[in-house]
Design brief:
This protein is α/β, with parallel strands linked by helices. The protein is 43% helix and 13% strand.
Length: 282
């Protein structure tokens, strides 16, 4: 999954894709390098980001989405995902040809009020009607307050439990199991040590406890250029965190992750293919 940030303030590449022509050039490069899904986002979700509202989000996303349609004739299997937690944005994008919805608030819970979610209440009925793939990402709070909510007794157990709660809500709203993907939300309301713990125990998230059947939900992992990698590597420049990202992606593939959400598609495609080749021999 190649990341296409259409925002001026994204943490690693904000302001680089300022017009549809630039989006198409970057998208074509990503697909040529191996991207199977393009993930368009018009709202930065980095810590401290300002919410722009659905109207501005649509102003950024829809022209880019329209400009990408001709790529489908060259790449018939290409899928386009919209990274949004606003149901109105998701609805408009789906009406304009988007295939997936990637919702960073899909599994958003408040530790102060268990079971409380910031998810747009119109999102799940929309996804059920549309029948499209839906990424439920774990997070807590908003961009302004997520760091304060990085408090867990057991980060793997609680992330998995909150993803299950969100999944139950989606199924109750009519979303089908085959529509759902899980994302543990690396970097969202997690400290560096908690992110590393999640990665060490990723097989437990994907496969469940010993003796239990595997969950049917493919797992998306999105580590690309994130600050926990910068903290480990003492690298303040997000675009210089490629090799740290590659290490995380190799581990994720070996652990059973099905989708990697990244900025540097070419190198990470090689990492994924090589890791798959190694694991196929075990």
């Amino acid at each position: 999954m190649g990341v296409l940030n259409l925002t001026p303030d994204s943490f690693s590449d904000g302001g680089r894709l300022t017009n549809p022509d630039a989006v198409v050039v970057q998208a074509r490069r990503m697909v040529h390098q191996g991207a199977q899904v393009l993930d368009l986002g018009g709202q930065s979700t980095r810590p401290g980001a300002t919410m722009v509202g659905p109207d501005e989000e649509l102003r950024r996303v829809l022209p880019a989405l329209e400009a990408l349609h001709p790529l489908r004739s060259d790449y018939p299997g290409l899928l386009i995902s919209i990274d949004s937690f606003e149901a109105s944005v998701a609805a408009a994008a789906l009406a304009h040809g988007a295939d997936w919805i990637n919702d960073v608030r899909g599994a958003n819970h408040s530790p102060e009020a268990p079971g409380c979610s910031l998810r747009d209440p119109a999102m799940l009925p929309l996804i059920a009607r549309a029948g499209c793939p839906y990424v439920l990402m774990h997070s807590r709070g908003t961009s302004q307050g997520m760091d304060e909510r990085a408090v867990y007794d057991d980060v793997l157990v609680e992330v998995r439990s909150e993803l299950l709660t969100a999944t139950d809500a989606a199924l109750a709203a009519g979303v089908q199991p085959e529509q759902i993907l899980w994302d543990p939300g690396l970097g969202f309301a997690k400290t560096t040590s908690q992110n590393l713990e999640l990665l060490r125990r990723l097989p437990q998230l994907i496969q469940g406890e010993p003796g239990q059947p595997d969950l049917p939900y493919p797992v998306v992992v999105g580590p690309s250029r994130k600050r926990f990698i910068g903290a480990v590597l003492h690298e303040p420049r997000p675009r210089s965190r490629l090799w740290g990202t590659a290490a995380v992606c190799a581990l994720a593939v070996a652990s059973g992750a099905r989708v990697l959400r990244v900025h540097d598609v070419g190198p990470i495609t090689q990492v994924a293919r090589m890791t798959n080749a190694i694991m196929a021999g075990t």
